[in-house]
Design a protein that fits this description.
Chain A: Pfam families: ABC_tran (PF00005). The structure holds three protein chains of three kinds. In chain A, 31% of the residues lie in helices and 23% in strands. By secondary structure, chain A is an alpha/beta fold. In chain A, strands 13, 16, 17, 18, 19, 20 and 21 form a seven-stranded mixed beta sheet that branches. Chain A has a six-stranded mixed beta sheet with strand order 6-7-8-3-9-10, with helices on both faces. The two termini of chain A are 45 Å apart.
């Protein structure tokens, strides 16, 4: 079977009364979703609303407990991703599924089901080249995937689906690793293809801007249930948002008190560092942070924010520049963390902040185990006092756990983050370094965690907040800087800017003249 | 065999009957015991296939290992170095390092203590001063040797498993080189050895037994290392670093120094075992130092689940197997490698049993978090 | 004196090829295994057990090539065990490798006792040096067919990884297992098959040791070639072709001691024995932080973190 671009056919897809439980947990409860042929449909919902479960059922990763699926009005049964693939349903995941050490061409060929035993690369290349001619994107076929940019990789993911002749595309937060410009290009092209009825797109997204700009219809899920659907061009973002959040109402933003901002507490001068590949990922970065303020650093991931946090928390060596606290040179050692009261909420706490197999009480003790009262004489520790303190903080920070001795890996994401908060914020904090603290957490935890960080600022701590979530940046920060390509912009007061301007900066356009508001 | 991950979520909320710590302890005892039992069964099948009587085999292990005071002493004698080499694997394992360097540290430590004894003997130093110096030299050399693997791991990114193994081969080559060359005692005719220690330069037996002091030392060190790893800030830091290196870095812990120190402790233990092999068993350094104690120690530590106290009984078990080896060889006409086969079977079974952790239904720590 | 240099050079050349052959075979086997994202430290056990089985088979059937075949079969079975256990959850492939090293060695010593004394028929070398009248040249150019088998395998493996379905599947499994699974590939099965196939090569390497060079069976036959090959694969950056060069380098370093001894320099013989280990260690130190290696390492491999 040769892969010559055949006549385009965008299918319609419907799920009827789909349910799926994991134990007692009803992840999907009687959900019906209708995606018309050639539409660009958004699937909205908070974390844990059941969006992933729904698309995983569509893709055959899970088998639904009840419900039907129809393609072009005909009932279908999907038991495995292979079935989905055969029916022309393909998915782009949050994480790349490309194989980094293979070239783009190899990645395309390997994705096929009918790979010949011996591959004739010459004829294969001719066919690939012909196929690429029909594609809206260009990707270098001979490049090893590990050398491609995030945008190119995402394009290749989509090309791969089209190469496999999959015309119903499920995109799971496809733009989370892209710059706004890359995202707009890719979504724009897909939108045009949908308009020409070449594909049907179902996109999971959190970004209302993208939904408003590119989607024509939407469905909202909440706690595993269908709550509504509509025309994405008519319904405005606020309405969509209230459908997602439901009766809980809008979360009140964390209370910001007036503080006396003096400083600088923390100062970075010309800081540079190298990434894992040996490239400079942070270059010549300088910033100042005063007490009683939150400096928000916005930007798309992969622009050096992680490396910056790693440098400050001692996970990555400095290759140039200096860090000063209260004017004195600072090295990220345990002694200095204690002396200057530096604390941190790193991103992905399971990877950066806790030891999964150790107990909740032990994880809480990471900051205090080498100090009295836990520390006794001769370097001996009192595990009773450690446990006692753990229990107090479990109570105080409302951590849901079966026991202080339960391994922390048995806790939910929100409770893991609360454990880290309990450890880092229960004492006196002068400097707090925070990265994506609410990523992937439920509604209640988000409010809790942002409130605690704000409290810390109100008590006079200097807070550095790195976040990919622009809403979070605007809610929390006193000043905002943008990080892109390892460099940082001068901070501006949150009151003196808006999401549009910051968004443009994130996309790499400099904000020289005050631009008038642009129509969206 | 493979359960979907959903099962952990699916488990209904129920209060565990025991607290998680006791459950973990029971689990960590039941599973290795089960693995030992399974190994005994597999090995019995192996013997049956060869037309040998497994019951006779295990009764000979009993006779040769524990039945008489003579066999008990024989067992303890062999357990002594195994405690130390078991600890040498267990301590760095806590910080997440798989080190195979104990054999090399034992060989070099033993050699170093035999060599440093020569000038002291010739110079007429007092024994009470000489023996501790020998022991400390062995520990220092062993510690430096394995510490090097830790240093390479942390500061140069070299995989510690392979580097420590290479260091073992190099250690054996160095010993052969020195023992066959410069330091060969002209008196050693059939097996090249260093100059023998004088009779009063030997470590004696624990009074009333024929077990040398290495056993008592091993027990003390096991207890000390248990306290170090379970009750001190050093051990706690090491567990953090072993469980999640990035989290340890973010806590500002000196992960490099912790890694090197753990390796050095491991090497010192193995070096000390080498000292006792020289000063209490062989009376000189030669190729018999490389008697696989270092490698058996790996198995001891795995079976003890890297717990320094549990190393002791496990070392006794393997001591008993080794002690009964000769008897089995003679009575059942089986080669000395029989015990190696048994060790291999235990090792493989034990590692296979690792996949049972958290999956024994009656021991599961309930997922009674707040998963909804 | 230049005669002596020539003698050393010829002895080194012949020695390098002889010594490198088992390195090459094990390294190719390990490359295949590691390309699927799994590491097998147990190949030392395959090597020793393969050597014993090959010798015993050759002794009892009179056919050394049957011995090679038997060794390959043994290696396959042993590594299939490794592959099977490693697919269980929570099992550490490095530790399982050590266990299989113990088991393989134990079985070899157990069953090998009766074969230490008798002499088994050995593999014949191909004599490529008959054109020369110089006995050193003739000696150096006596090359065992298994060396050429190793060379051919290296090329075949290189070609296969690039140009066949299996090759792409192997590389995908080793670099991004999740992607392979999403494509319906059974990652465990691919790894099992690759580990077993790699194990057969280590078995053949053992047969080379007992049936050609040194050419007898005893318990100190292997000097850790099976383990050093793991380091060699890292040095060769997972390329079968580079494995050939790396194996030759290791072979040359291993041939250094005997070559010097052949002209009467026996001082430090035991020290030169350590040369391959020291070389391996140096190479590992030098290549550990290499960016090139970082790019080529299979993403799923546990040993190069």
């Amino acid at each position: 079977m040769t892969k010559i671009f055949k006549t385009f056919r965008a299918p319609s897809l419907e799920t009827l009364h789909m349910s799926k439980s994991f134990g007692r947990n009803k992840a999907l409860d009687d959900v019906s979703l209708k995606v018309a042929a050639g539409s660009f449909h958004a699937l909205l919902g908070e974390n844990g609303a059941g969006k992933s479960t729904l698309v995983k059922c569509m893709m055959g990763f899970y088998e639904a407990d009840a419900g039907q699926m129809m393609i072009d009005g005909q009932e279908i049964r999907i038991h495995s991703p292979r079935d989905a693939q055969a029916l022309g349903i393909g998915m782009v995941y949050q994480h790349f599924t490309l194989v980094p050490c293979l070239t783009a061409a190899e990645n395309l060929v390997i994705s096929r089901r009918d790979i010949p035993m011996v591959i004739n690369w010459k004829s294969e290349r001719q066919r690939l080249d012909a196929f690429m001619e029909t594609m809206p994107f260009r990707v270098r076929l001979d490049a090893q995937v590990s050398t491609l940019s995030a945008g190119e990789k995402q394009k290749l993911e989509i090309i791969k689906l089209l190469y496999l002749d999959q015309r119903f595309l499920i995109l799971d937060e496809p733009t989370s690793v892209l710059t706004p410009a890359e995202a707009d290009e890719i979504l724009g092209v897909l939108g045009e293809m949908a308009l020409r009825r070449e594909v049907t797109v179902l996109m999971i997204s959190h970004k209302f801007r993208e939904v408003k700009a590119f989607c024509d219809s939407f469905t909202v899920l909440r706690r595993g249930r269908f709550v509504g659907a509509g025309d994405a061009r008519r319904v405005n973002a606020a309405e969509m948002s209230s459908m997602m959040i439901g009766d809980v109402g809008m979360r009140p933003p964390a209370t910001r008190l007036k503080t006396i901002q003096d400083g600088p507490k923390l100062e970075l001068r010309g800081v540079s560092t190298l990434g894992d590949e040996g490239r400079r990922v942070v270059s010549d970065l300088s910033l100042k942070l005063c007490s009683g303020e939150i400096l928000g650093i916005a930007g798309v991931s992969g622009n050096g924010q992680s490396a910056l946090i790693e440098v400050l928390s001692g996970q990555r060596p400095l290759s140039g520049g200096e860090i000063k606290i209260n004017g004195a040179p600072f090295e990220p050692t345990r002694r200095n963390f204690d002396r200057f009261k530096v604390f941190g909420l790193p991103e992905e706490p399971m990877r950066n902040a806790v030891v999964p197999r150790m107990s909740v009480a032990e994880n809480i003790a990471f900051r205090s185990f080498d100090k009295p009262p836990v520390l006794k004489r001769f370097g001996l520790m009192s595990s009773a006092r450690m446990r006692q303190r753990g229990m107090e903080l479990i109570q105080q920070f409302n951590i849901h756990t079966s026991s202080p001795d339960a391994p922390i890996e048995t806790l939910s994401g929100g409770n893991v983050q609360r454990t880290v908060l309990a450890r880092e914020l229960s004492g006196e904090v002068d400097i707090l370094i925070v990265a994506n603290p609410c990523f992937g957490l439920d509604f209640a935890s988000v409010a809790d965690i942002r409130g605690k960080i704000m409290e810390c600022r109100n008590r006079g701590a200097a807070v550095l907040l790195v976040s990919e979530d622009l809403d979070e940046i605007f809610e929390m920060s006193d000043k905002i800087s943008v990080m892109s390509a390892g460099k940082i912009s001068d901070p501006v007061s949150t009151l003196a800017t808006d999401a549009m301007r910051i968004g443009k900066q994130i996309a790499g356009q400099t904000d020289e003249i005050v631009a008038g508001p642009q129509a969206e | 065999m493979s359960l979907p991950s959903a099962s952990s979520v699916a488990r209904p909320h129920r209060k565990p009957r025991l607290d998680p710590r006791s459950l973990a302890l029971i689990e960590a005892s039941v599973i290795p015991m089960g693995a030992l039992l399974a190994s005994a069964l597999i090995f019995s099948l192996f013997l049956l296939m060869l037309g040998k009587d497994p019951i006779r085999f295990f009764s000979l292990v009993w006779t040769g290992g524990v039945a008489s005071s003579f066999s008990i002493q024989n067992t303890l004698q062999r357990a002594a170095p195994l405690i130390l080499t078991g600890l040498a694997f267990a301590v760095p394992a806590r910080i997440g390092m798989t080190l195979l360097g104990a054999e090399g540290a034992l060989v070099l430590g033993g050699l170093a203590s035999a060599l440093i004894a020569i000038p002291m003997m010739l110079g007429g130093w007092p024994v009470w001063l000489g023996l501790p110096i020998m022991a400390l030299t062995a520990m220092a050399v062993g510690g430096a040797w394995v510490g090097l693997a830790g240093w390479l791991r942390h500061y140069r990114g070299v995989n510690e498993t392979i580097s420590s193994l290479l260091l073992t081969y190099i250690a054996v080559a160095i010993m052969n080189f020195l023992v066959e060359g410069v330091f060969r005692d002209p008196g050693s005719t059939n097996k090249a050895s260093t100059m023998p220690l004088g009779p009063d330069w030997r470590v004696g037996d624990i009074p009333g037994t024929s077990v040398h002091w290495g056993l008592a030392t091993g027990l003390i060190i096991a207890a000390l290392l248990w306290v170090l790893m379970e009750r001190t800030t050093f051990g706690f830091s090491a567990r953090i670093a072993g469980g999640n290196l990035r989290a340890a870095q973010a806590q500002g812990l000196p992960v490099g120094r912790l890694a090197v120190a753990s390796c050095a402790i491991a090497g010192a233990c193995a070096g000390l075992a080498g000292f006792f092999e020289v000063a209490a068993v062989h009376g000189q350094a030669n190729a018999s130092l490389a008697a696989q104690y270092g490698f058996t120690g790996i198995l001891v530590a795995f079976l003890a689940r890297q717990n320094p106290l549990a190393v002791v009984p496990v070392a006794f078990l393997f001591g008993a197997l080794a002690a009964s080896g000769g008897l089995i060889q003679r009575r059942m006409e089986m080669p000395d490698a029989t015990m190696l086969v048994l060790q291999g079977i235990i090792f493989v079974t034990l590692l296979t049993s690792e996949s049972l952790y958290g999956r024994l239904p009656f021991l599961s720590v309930s997922q009674a978090g707040d998963r909804t | 004196m230049s005669d002596a240099v020539f003698m050393v050079m010829m002895a080194m050349f012949g020695g390098a090829i002889r010594v490198s052959t088992p390195f090459l075979l094990v390294a190719l086997g390990e490359t295949l295994t590691e390309k699927t994202g799994r590491i097998n430290l147990g190949l030392e056990g395959n090597l020793v057990l393969g050597a014993m089985v090959a010798y015993a088979t050759s002794y009892s059937t009179g056919s050394p090539w049957l011995g090679v075949l038997a060794a390959a079969g043994t290696g396959t079975v042993l590594s299939a065990g490794h592959g099977w256990i490693c697919k269980l959850p929570k099992v550490n492939d490095i530790a399982v490798g050590i266990a299989f090293m113990t088991l393989g060695t134990g079985l070899a010593f157990f069953f090998g006792k009766p074969f230490i004394q008798p002499t088994a028929p050995r593999l014949d070398a191909i004599e490529l040096g008959n054109w020369s009248s110089n006995p050193q040249v003739q000696q150096a150019l006596k090359i065992n067919p298994l060396f050429f088998v190793g060379l051919a395998l290296a090329v075949v493996l290189w070609w296969m990884l690039k140009n066949t379905r299996w090759g792409l599947i192997i590389r995908m499994t080793g670099d991004n297992a999740a992607a392979a699974r999403a494509m319906g590939i059974s990652v465990d099965r691919v790894r099992l098959v690759a580990t077993a196939a790699g194990g057969s090569l280590a078995g053949i390497a053992g047969a080379f040791l007992s049936l050609y060079y040194p050419g007898s069976w005893n318990e100190s036959l292997s000097s850790g070639q099976g383990l050093m090959a793991v380091a060699l694969v890292i040095f060769a950056r997972w390329s079968p072709i580079r494995c050939v060069w790396a194996a030759l380098l290791f072979g040359a370093s291993g041939a250094l001691g005997p070559a010097l001894q052949s002209i009467g320099i026996s001082k430090g013989y035991y020290f030169f024995n350590a040369a391959p280990y020291i070389l391996t260690l140096i190479i590992m130190v030098l290549s550990a932080r290499s960016q090139k290696a970082a790019h080529e390492v299979p993403g799923e491999l546990s040993i190069v973190k």
